[in-house]
Amino acid sequence: MDREDVYFAFRIPHDAEFVSTCCNLLFGERIETTTNRTGVIVHPRPRQLTEDELAQLEAVLRAVRPFSLSVDKTRIQAGGTDYAVVTVQSSGDSVVLLVRDTEVEVPLIDGQGVLEITAEAPTIEPIVVRAKDHLVYGFAQVEVEAI
């Protein structure tokens, strides 16, 4: 098989690092990629993807949604009265987030939703909030510490 770049002529809302990480999750190997304003370029380094792998990667990339997370404060007072507000922006009606690996569905209105994080006791490890499905939403996460 000739070692040639493969071009997907559609835009995704993430960068080349996201595409390379998807390759690692799907195929167990980071494949070199670049993105630009018009599409995604998959390079044959360290190896050429097979036709089936390219089809699988294209299906994943076509399902990708824009996604961002932000938090108004990274430290809250324990005791259940203080809280941090996590803001999520994406497309669709809702997004399923993982809060300490517990699924929480956040409804979206005009592409935005909010989730309040509180804690009864101080945290040893930060409370991590991220999207449940990395291959659709990417790898953004925020952390909140209760003191």
Task: Give a verbal description of the structure.
The protein has 147 residues and is α+β, with helices and mostly antiparallel strands. Helix content is 20%, strand content 35%. The protein contains three helices and eleven strands. The protein has a five-stranded mixed beta sheet, with no helix packed on it. Strand 2 and strand 3 form a beta hairpin. It is elongated and about 60 Å long.
Unreliable residue stretches: none
Strand content: 35-45%
Query: What value does the average pLDDT take?
Result: 90
Number of DSSP E strands: 11
The helix-and-strand class reads alpha+beta
Radius of gyration from the CA trace? 18 Å
Question: What distance separates the N and C termini?
Answer: 58 Å
Largest sheet: 5 strands, mixed
Give the gist of this structure.
With 147 residues, the chain is of the alpha+beta class.
SSE blueprint and pairings:
Layout: E1 6-8, H1 16-27, E2 33-35, E3 40-42, H2 51-63, E4 67-71, E5 75-76, E6 84-90, E7 94-99, E8 102-107, E9 112-117, E10 127-131, H3 134-137, E11 141-146
Parallel strand pairs: 5-11
Antiparallel strand pairs: 1-3, 2-3, 4-6, 6-9, 7-8, 7-10, 10-11
Helix pairs in contact: 1-2
